[in-house]
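User: Can you write out an input/output pair for a complex, sequences first and structure second?

Assistant: Here is one pair. Inputs:
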Amino acid sequence: MMRNSDMSKAALLHEISKVDFAVVEMTLYLDTHPHEREAIAYLNHYVKLKNQLEKEYSYKYEPLSVSLSCESDDNKWMWALAPMPWEGGCR
Amino acid sequence: MWSYERRLQYPINIKEPNAKIAQIIISQYGGPDGELAASMRYLSQRYTIPYNEVAGLLTDIGTEELAHFELVGAIVHQVTRDLSMEEIEKSGFAPYYVDHTLALWPQAAGGIPFNACEFQSKGDPITDLMEDMAAEQKARTTYDNILRMVKDPDVCDVIKFLRAREVVHFQRFGEALRRVQDKLNEKNFYAFNPAFDTCNVKDNK
């Protein structure tokens, strides 16, 4: 059984996946529809949300990118120590 | 340039090892219609595309394909990482195992190594975008074929996500092709290369 802290970690990562999906999908849409203002506003909303959630995850657990590693523990280099995603470690 | 996000585009948590499906699914890692070929195709074609929005689309889809390359690699890794020696020998996985142990190596299901001849980068936007649309459909067909053979719900869930992305990419490439065609001289729609024969492009007439 997952511990409570693991559960919230998994839930936060799942939320990031969902928000990122909107970002990826809308990016491709705007590549071929660059003048649709409604789509731009939609993308901007999810980009901001993604940045905010990734920052929170990197602060609480481990950095999702080198750019976000400054949010993590100052005493050890969490980018090197964190589990790799293909192991199902980042669940 | 690129930077890495340390997470999968879609979650993968496969519980059951299965060497049989690893041998099938690896085709989407390094096979003729696989994710590696897709990414290399789009990221190579983009330099000679004379329209920014189309070069941007090739870059963004080529980047997403790298994330898919990682997803397929993660599936194969998770279904092979806990295999016993007995399962390896019984399941027909031995010919792969002898050369690569349990490492990932880009090859087709039939054992043919990854090869740049699996895609083209022709330097003609019409030709290249037609190829890209065909490539997305070929990958979709491969995922359909995988779904007919694989029953593990943890695996099927990811394959269905990848299959859906092929459909979206096909749609976006279709729109990009229309944008390119809109810029052509209507009398010479398919006869010239808009990246090279600039005299036949509408804007330069």
